[in-house]
Structures are given as C-alpha cells and as structure tokens.
UniProtKB/TrEMBL annotation, chain A:
Domain of life: Eukaryota
Any GO BP annotation: protein transport
Name of the protein in question: Rab7/RabG-family small GTPase
A Pfam family hit: Ras
GO molecular function: GTP binding; GTPase activity
Lineage of source species: Eukaryota, Viridiplantae, Chlorophyta, core chlorophytes, Trebouxiophyceae
Family, per entry: Belongs to the small GTPase superfamily. Rab family.
Entry annotated with the keyword Cytoplasm: no
Location(s) in or outside the cell: Endomembrane system
UniProt KW keywords: GTP-binding, Lipoprotein, Membrane, Nucleotide-binding, Prenylation, Protein transport, Transport
TrEMBL record, chain B:
Protein name as annotated: TBC-domain-containing protein
Domain Rab-GAP TBC: 60-253
GO MF annotations, alphabetized: GTPase activator activity; small GTPase binding
Pfam families membership: RabGAP-TBC
InterPro entries: Rab-GAP-TBC_dom, Rab-GAP_TBC_sf, Rab_GAP_TBC_domain
Source superkingdom: Eukaryota
Amino acid sequence: MGARQTKRTLLKVIILGDSGVGKTSLMNQYVNKKFSSQYKATIGADFLTKEVQVDDRLVTMQIWDTAGQERFQSLGVAFYRGADCCVLVYDVNSQKTFENLDNWRDEFLIQASPSNPDNFPFVVLGNKVDMDEGRSRVVTEKKAKQWCTAKGGIPYFETSAKEDLNVDSAFQCIARNALKNETEEELYMPDTVDMNAQAIPKRNSSCC
Amino acid sequence: MAPRVIRDTYGFALNCTEEQYITRQRCDEKQAHQAAKWAKYSDKKQLPKGEKLKKLCRKGIPPQCRPWVWLSLSGAAEKQREHIANYYDAMVHMGESASEFAHQIDLDLARTFPANDYMSTDEGQAALRRVLLAFSAHQPAVGYCQGMNYLAAMLLLALERSEENSFWLLVALIDDGGILYQGLYSQNLVGAHVEMRSLQELVDAKLPRLRQHLENLGCDMTIIATDWFLCLFSTSLPSETAIRCWDALLSEGAKVLYRVALALLKTHEDALLAQDNAGYVLREMKLASASMHDRDALLKVAFDGVGSMPMARIREVRSVKQAVVDVELARRGRSRSLREAVRDSERHAPFAAEGMASLADRIKNAYAARMARSIEHR
C-alpha cells in the first residue's frame, strides 16, 4: 500500500441542499474566510479547493457546489461521480429545506452509486442559525438530530456562514469522513484479496 | 503591470491586463466600423435580407441597434403582435398575484449579476422580478428555472432596460418552437440533458483527443457546459463577448451555441489536456472563458474553425438523444415516486414500512447498478 502515500490525496466533497440555504456561502466562508450576501446563483457547478491537515496527512479537499433548484437534481450524476463525502445543508428557518434532505440524500445515493451506500459518509449542516437571533427558527436541533440518527448516525452541525459559526469544525469533520471513505474505497480495490475479510459497518460520527 | 479595472458597456466591472485592454479596444474599433454598415438599415428599421443579414449579425450588431434588430430577428416582435396590446402588463399582474415560482425568483434577484451597476439596484431587481414573474405566468408549465434570471437580466441590459421587450425576447427564446431547444428549462431539464449529450457527440466527433482525455477523467459535458446552454454564455464570457454570440444566436438559431461551445473547447484544448482531474478542467475552462475579451477571435473560430455543422445534423443527434433521455427520466420518475410512497408510509405506519423500505432499497440498488452500466456504455 506504499503507493498510496506518494499519491497526492484529493478528496471530493459535494454540497447539496435547497436553493438559498447557503451552500455557496458556507464553502466561501470555509475556504476564503469571507462572507458576502452577493454570491451569484450557481448554475451547473462550481468548486473551491482547500488544503487540510487531517491528523498526519495533508490532503486537498475539492468542494463542489451545485444549483439548488429541484429540477437540477436530475443533472447530478455528472457532478456526484467519485465523491468521498456528501454535505447536506438546510436552513434552520425553513421547514421545507429540512424536509427535502430526504430527497437530496436519496438522489445522491442513486446518482453517485457509491460502492457501499449504507456506509457512505454524509454530514448535515443546519445553517443560518444567526438569523433574527434565532427567533425565526422553525427546525429544532432535536428534530434535526433525530433525522441524522435515523439515517445511521450522520454527524450534525449547526452553522452560520455569516457569523463563521462552527464552519471550520464542520469541514474538519467532513474532511475526516471523506478521507476515511477514500481510504476504504482503496481497500476495496482487489489488488490483494483477503478471503476472510468482511465488510465492517463503520460509524461516521467518530469525530463529532 | 497592474491590471486595469474598467467598466464595460453593460456596467460590469472587469479586471483586465494591458494586453486584454488593447484587445478590447481593437474589438471596439471594429464594432464602430460595423455601425456604419448598419446605418442605412437602422434609418428605416428594416433588416437586410438572407446572407447579408447573417454576415452582418456574425460581425456584431451595434449596441444602439440591438433593441429593434433583436426584436425583429428573434421573432419577438411578431409574437408581440400576435397578442393583445397590454399582454405583458396582464402577465405581470397575474404573476404578481399568484405565482408558485415567486419564492425562487425572489431568492435569485439579488444573486443575479450582483456586481453589475444596474442589476445591483432596487430598480434593476424590481424590473427583473416583473419580467420573470410575467414569464412564469405566460408559460406556467416551465414557470421559472434558474438560469432564466441571467437571460432576463442580460436582455434588460442589452435592450435599454425595456421590460416589455425583454419579456418578448424571453418568449421568443423559450416558447415551444422558439430559438432554444424544447424543454431546456422544463421540470426535469429534459432539454438540457439532450443538449449536453448532443454536444458530447459533436465533441467526440470533432475533438477526438479531448474526448479521450475527458473520458479518462470522467468529465462529461454536463460539468463543463450546463451553464453555457442554460445561461447562453452570459455567466461565462465577458458580457460583450456573450452578447456577440447572442447576435448570431438570434439570427441563426441554437446551433450557434454548439459552435461557440466547440470554439471555446478547441481554443483551450491544450490547456484542458494538461489537467488531470475533472474539477481542474472545469476551473481551467471557467478562467479561460472569463478572459475571452477577443470576441472577434472567438467568433472566427466558432464560424470558420470547427467545420460544418448543418442544423439537420444537430436535429438528428438531438432526436436520438431525446429518446434515450426520455426513457431514463421516466425510469427516474418512477423510482422517485416509489421512494416518496415509502417515506409517506414510514411517516404514517412506521412498522409496516420496514418491509417496504427494504424492498425499496433493493429496487434502488438495482436501479443504481443499471444507471452505472448505462453510463459505462455511453
């Protein structure tokens, strides 16, 4: 497995969620340490990269941002291919954006068709917690965590891209889970076949 | 040398190098020269005919002539004549009083060219809102699709901020039988799927080296060209370059989009071949497009450098792809309804749903496997 160390590790992360929940803002806050209410609506896709240290490894994270209007979901297959982690974002001030997480998750699994869908790493972000000092909030943390637990223990973060709240720690967790997935995908490669090997279901929530 | 910050004809801020600045000036001079050739048509507001028209449009319509030329070229003026006099106002009213698309439109207003002089104003956003609401009322089956915001905004900018003219141009572009391919913005973007696959086919035929490279990277045209076809290059190219493409698009039809797309890919082929990952291909393409200030050069490649591309060929390719996309989207729709039914039952009868859910998983996996196979075969 020595070859893996010499190869530059590139992690592909996809951010999904309804239009206007703050996908582009989260990505920009994390990568560029900037917030603007003036991002262009994303059509097709865009991405930013960031070098991250995960334990002793330096990896490049390629974070992909896509259009959020529902009708764009059908184009997903092109963008999701080869993803190592999928970030699902909703707006804590909008019930609808939370309910749609089911759809985004399903669509992702179908279109990305990861080799091990049951263990594919997702991370959920409830964004815009700063809005109106929390008074306009409609989705409770409890409700969101319940959903994450029901989906096999998805790590959950409450964030504000605007106030830079929890954004770094969320993406640290995303990087860690993506790296774990990438490594496991490589282990599935049958260059050495271990007849006794069994797929061990992994817990995603180790870092949070 | 430090880059210059300038504002272009349509109120976009641009950073350009000295070299790009000189290129832009050269293009502006050529444009002024073209203006003289349009003078006699402009006086009578009558378009030249046939080849002459096509040629003149390819060389660029003078900005001050665009309002009447575009309306008449695109069929927008004719559409307008076919409707009652205050049709636009009626549609605005209808859209404002009840549009299921108002929410999405409102979300996008401030996100449509936020750095543009006009589109960043309340006035500009209010105009954009009315045009989009009116269109969603006029064509409720399409409603509003992201991408149309950029079209409507460019139209407002190019048509001297006339909402009504922008509306009719949008109608001429998007209505069935209009300039753009049917269903481009429809509920599941079926037309966009067809256009992306058709473009792929043409790239495969015309740029074989690039085809092989992109295939190795798992980078298909959807990644590179979705916004080209949905925003008609307005979010990719400098505005004056994009508008030049629109001059030809309105005169010759959607095949111009294919020509420009192939020209962009061909011009930057070497740089794209040097990228070792789909993301970097996309980034290279975005950077390269954003600096295409030489509109004359780009259009020269588009019209003289990518070989023949008769509309009949594009129609043929599209009809083959349409059949494939129809089948895939229908399958997708069925699987989605099934999943939604499962979720509903989970909410209402959690225990009975367990069996359903595992059934749904099996179907889902089988579906995913089939999708993967169909991608491999493409």
